[in-house]
Amino acid sequence: MLKISVITVSYNAAATIEQTILSVIRQGYPHIEYIVIDGGSTDGTVDIIRKYEDKIAYWVSEPDAGMYDALAKGFARATGDVCAYINADDFYQPHAFATVCQIFQDTGCQWLTGINAIYNTQGQIVHAKIPFRYRSAFIQKGFYNGYFLPFIQQESTFWRRSLMQYIDFSQFRQFKLTGDYYLWKCFSQHTELEIVSCILSGFRKRQGQLSEELSAYRRELKHFCPKAPNWMEKIEILFDRIQGGFPTYFNRDMICFDFQKESWGRRGKSS
Predict the structure, then answer these.
(1) Predicted pLDDT at 76
(2) Between 202 and 53, residue with greater pLDDT
């Protein structure tokens, strides 16, 4: 069985981190390496982490230079076959890790993401949409920025640890908001992001959260993905957005569960 390494970074997250931790340690999957990097919280977060430290492979609470500096510390300690990270106010769906590791084994994929799901503040799923397609060329150009095309949902994304060799962590540590997209850009130069037809996690949306943060996110993204789409790319983006309304029809390579074979596979490929 594959081993999965999951990193959570936190800072003054006492109101939500317990749900995050429980969503990891209650997965029921036997090969989990859970790493928690706290930035020196003062609100009770550390007490909650200590409560579950027998289920955590490594944790530390110390000042850091920001979220992605903390994540870099966590990734440096990861030894699993598969990696992911979950923020301290989000959580995984039950059995997500067993599902993900089975998909990696059944299909040989290197990088995957699930159905885009949004939670409200009570943790209820209020929206879910199957992504249509993630083109590597468009990832590298920064087009999945929530304006041209939908975001890649970080909370639902998992990858083989071997892809981490392509990350410049000195650069990764410098990001304030777009470190996730930097990972995607690096990964997309070496493999395809594949879509799985199930909910693995989601993004917790709060009132007033998006407007200012989204503008700042796009500004930072332009620093390493500066080019706007040309007219041909705009046409391709338009077609992807139209076809995105019918993802199960148009996406023949989506990874789905085959009940006859009792395994995961790509819809358009038969053995």
Answers:
(1) 97
(2) 53
Alpha helix stretches (DSSP H) within the chain: 17-25, 45-51, 67-77, 96-107, 136-140, 169-172, 179-188, 210-224, 231-243, 247-250
State the residue range of the domain holding 107: 4-266
Q: What is the pLDDT of residue 100?
A: 98
CATH code, domain with 235:
3.90.550.10
Residue 43 is encoded by which pair of tokens?
A: 């609100």
- Cα of 231 vs its chain's centroid, Å: 30
E strands present in 86-134: 111-113, 116-119, 125-129
Instruction: Specify whether the CB–CB gap between 115 and 152 falls below 8 A.
Output: no
Summary count for the chain: helices (H), strands (E): 10, 12
Q: Residue written as tokens 């390579």?
A: 253
Number of separate domains in the chain: 1
Q: Is 271 a member of any domain?
A: no
Consecutive H or E run containing 160: strand 157-160
pLDDT of 192 strictly over 80: yes
Q: Kindly tell me if the per-residue pLDDT of 232 is higher than 90.
A: yes
Any domain includes 195: yes
CA gap 161, 74 in Å, rounded? 13
